[in-house]
Write a structure and sequence with these properties.
Layout: E1 4-13, E2 16-26, E3 31-35, H1 42-48, E4 59-67, E5 70-71, H2 79-85, E6 86-89, H3 100-110, H4 116-129, H5 133-136, H6 149-161, E7 167-171, H7 179-192, E8 197-201, H8 205-211, E9 214-219, E10 222-228, H9 229-234, H10 239-245
Parallel strand pairs: 3-8, 3-9, 6-7, 7-8
Antiparallel strand pairs: 1-2, 1-4, 4-5, 9-10
The structure holds adenosine-5'-triphosphate and magnesium ion.
The site of magnesium ion has 4 residues, from helix 1.
Length: 250
């Protein structure tokens, strides 16, 4: 049984054919990196996993996407429930204009959790999980904007994790961060994949090699190659993959 199973996925923005016949299987508790040149469809494909593209008018999906063996585009699918299970972190840290505490508590509150001690416990546990607790424990009531970019990004990861998703999608989560903050998030991804299924889009080849078990190489809307990260980076099947990972184009 796969955690995420996409079968013959085609996706269109109006007339533009952005994803072409993509079938990909992702096992639970693994981390998968999507790589490929700008505009090849990585973010589009990632956003299909929590139906974020539904918000864009004029788009069309063919094929099937199953998460935990449920067809997430079935007309009976509960999209709120899906998005609770499939959290997302973006390129630019985007904390809410609220306190550090309330950023992490947010998802619980909008989901109707009233038990204050449960909320406090979850906020503390989640901040520890993203290795931010020691840095913020004395200023939980301060604005999230008072944190550094790297701290804000870990806070956004905490915000996503607080409502207990099983999948975490990350679209270039470190591209706005300095190398030290990037290293912290990479360490975090290593830890989190024990408990979550992680899909990360990255332009940083070293990062893909460091944090992922499997890598998918996309080019012009096609999944050119998908396999064990070690193999993709040392002995890819396709010349196009080889050219990309060695920096000859892209
Ligand atoms: N909202 C949209 N409307 C129309 N076309 C779009 C939209 N979003 C993306 N596209 C097009 O779909 C293609 C894939 O875009 P996508 O953002 O998925 O690429 P990407 O691989 O994530 O690129 P990057 O590495 O630059 O983030 C591109 O040609 C892009 O112009
Ligand atoms: Mg993108």
């Amino acid at each position: 049984m796969y955690k995420i199973d996409t079968q013959n996925v085609d996706f269109y923005y109006g007339d533009f054919h952005a994803l072409k016949n993509i079938s990909m299987q992702i096992s639970a508790n693994t981390s998968v990196a999507f790589i490929g040149p700008s505009g090849c469809g990585k973010s589009t494909f990632l956003r299909l996993f929590n139906r974020m593209n539904d918000l864009i008018p004029g788009t069309r999906l063919d094929g099937k996407i199953y998460i935990d063996e449920r067809d997430i585009y079935d007309k009976n699918e509960n999209v709120d429930r899906l998005r609770k299970n499939v959290g997302m972190v973006f390129q630019k840290p985007n904390p809410f204009p609220k306190s550090i505490f309330e950023n992490v508590a947010y998802g619980l509150r909008v989901n109707g959790v009233k038990d204050q001690s449960f909320i406090e416990e979850t906020v503390v546990d989640t901040l520890k999980k993203v290795v931010l607790w020691d840095e913020v424990k004395d200023k939980l009531k301060e604005s999230a904007f008072a944190l550094s970019g790297g701290q804000q990004q870990r806070l956004c990861i905490a915000r996503a994790l607080a409502i207990s998703p099983s999948i975490l999608l990350m679209d270039e989560p470190t591209s706005a961060l300095d190398p030290i903050s990037t290293g912290k998030i990479e360490d975090l991804i290593h830890q989190l994949k024990q408990q979550y299924t992680i899909v990360i889009v990255t332009h940083n080849m070293q990062q893909a090699a460091r944090v992922s078990d499997k890598t998918g190489y996309f080019y012009l809307g096609e999944l050119i190659e998908y396999g064990d990260t070690r193999k993709i980076f040392t002995n890819p099947e396709k010349e196009s993959t080889q050219n990309y990972i060695t920096g000859r184009f892209g």
